[in-house]
Amino acid sequence: MTKVLIHPATYDTVKEAVDLAFSHFPQKLSGKKVLIKPNVLRSATPAEGIVTHPAVLRAVVERVEEEGPAEIIVGDNPGVISYGANEKTFEDTGLMAAAKGYYRNIGNDSVKADFNPAFLPSVSISRIVLEADVIISLPKFKTHGLTVMTGAVKNSYGFLPGAQKAKLHQAAGSPERFHEAVVEVFKLRVPDLFIVDAVLGMEGNGPASPDLREIGKILASDNAVAMDSVMARMMGLDPGRLRFFRKAKEDGLGDYARESIEVIGRLEPIPNFVLPPLGGEAILKNKAMQDAMRQKTQLIPEASEACTGCGTCVDQCPVGALSMGDDDPPHVDAGVCITCFCCQEICPEKAMVLKQP
Ligand code: SF4
Ligand code: SF4
User: Fold this and answer.
1) Which of 261, 271, 80, 264 is nearest to 164 (CA)?
2) CA-CA to 356 of 20 to 30 Å: which in 54, 159, 290, 344?
3) Could you say which ligand is closest to the alpha carbon of residue 329?
């Protein structure tokens, strides 16, 4: 039987809840490479409730330091709006300071991985995700216009750098298939521990809704499906109604049935919690969001006059889409490029610009 911890917390007392999470779900961290991945959707203040709160990240980092010595890496690939602004997004959200010097731009070093060809033949994934011995995922308790809720499974979507997130949205085509695509990304590397920031949660049309709820909890589990099942029930939602739960169960990732989960703490629905429409209409009917995603997937990088010809981008491109002659700037093969935008992230001269082909 899988276990899920629900523990009262404020951002001032969060370390106690995080310590309790580690005692219920112990991890062997000494001498290990440990990736800590908050949910960093975009630039926002902690009070907006859009990203994992810095107090939660700091408490987890300190706990891992205590359990170590470990090689700690804190990183994420911000979503549709913040491509190419990894450092700035961490600074703006307060997560850079909370990372205590362990921040790494995981968007500028990625590798190609085979994917389910029903969606895309391959994706580019941040290299550290595949190299880490232990991954600690820090989702935020939020609603989501396309997946209804975003928690432990959906937080792994940030393993993909650049415009691939938007590309996969488009390749999926419908909310049902997008639910399945989210599970396919999750399966690329299942994290080991999930600690959810449910101190300040979000309802309504997330993942960037102004409608916040004081929940006052930290949740934790070592199984994402059980974790999300408990979150769904707190939202007043039957998890079996959502395709990503059924797909995750079919793929052997865990069970969302209430009787298969031991809850440590009090599991109570949040009164009058407002969910987005169950069919994913909140994003599908959002024309500005659709246009932004379409535009991002049509851009490809191009070297500007600031290019010094250092060759770093050519070395780092995960699919070999860049080539460079002796006196020429790098050239992008648009037919090969998977729009991960790693070259833009990594260029030391900020010479890679995104253009319509
Ligand atoms: S990394 Fe930047 S400066 Fe170096 S070759 Fe590529 S575009 Fe030019
Ligand atoms: S050329 Fe395309 S595939 Fe290669 S690093 Fe740049 S964006 Fe990614």
Assistant:
1) 80
2) 159
3) 1
Whether residue 242 contacts residue 275, with contact meaning beta carbons closer than 8 Å, is answered with no
Question: Under a CB-based contact definition with an 8 Å cutoff, are residues 354 and 332 in contact?
Answer: no
Q: Residue 160: CB within 6 Å of ligand 2?
A: no
Nearest CA to ligand 2 atom 4: 317
3-state SS assignment for residue 97: helix
State the closest ligand 1 atom to the C-alpha of 303, by its place in the atom list counted from 1: 7
Judged by its nearest atom, the ligand closest to the C-alpha of residue 313 is: 1
CA–CA separation, 25 and 219 (whole Å): 12
**Per DSSP, which regions of 212-341 are E strands?**
212-221, 261-264, 300-303, 322-323, 331-332
- In CATH terms, 299-355 corresponds, of 3.40.640.10, 3.30.70.1450, 3.30.70.20, 3.30.2310.20, to 3.30.70.20
Q: What is the separation of C-alpha 142 from the centre of its chain, rounded to a whole number of angstroms?
A: 13
Strand partners, 150: 142
Which ligand places an atom closest to the C-alpha of 352? 1
Pocket (CB within 6 angstroms of ligand 1): 303, 307-313, 329-330, 347, 349, 351-352
Nearest CA, atom 8, ligand 1: 307
Q: Are 152 and 198 in contact (CB under 8 A)?
A: no
Query: From the CB of 317, is ligand 2 less than 6 Å away?
Result: yes
User: Tokens in use for 213?
Assistant: 């709820």
Residue pLDDT, tens place only, 209-244 = 789 999 999 999 999 999 999 999 999 999 999 999
Written as six digits, the tokens of 140 are 């935020």
Its pTM stands at 0.89
CA of 36 to the centre of ligand 2 (A): 25
The CATH fold assigned to 2-291 is Rossmann fold (3.40.50)
Q: What atom of ligand 2 comes closest to residue 346's alpha carbon?
A: 5
- The predicted structure's pLDDT at residue 152: 98
Given a cut of 70, is residue 297 above it in pLDDT? no
Count Cβ atoms within 10 A of the Cβ of residue 15 and give its class: 0-12 exposed, 13-18 middle, 19 or more buried. middle
Beta carbon of 123 within 6 Å of any ligand 2 atom: no
Nearest CA to ligand 1 atom 4: 310
Domain boundaries, the chain: 2-291, 299-355
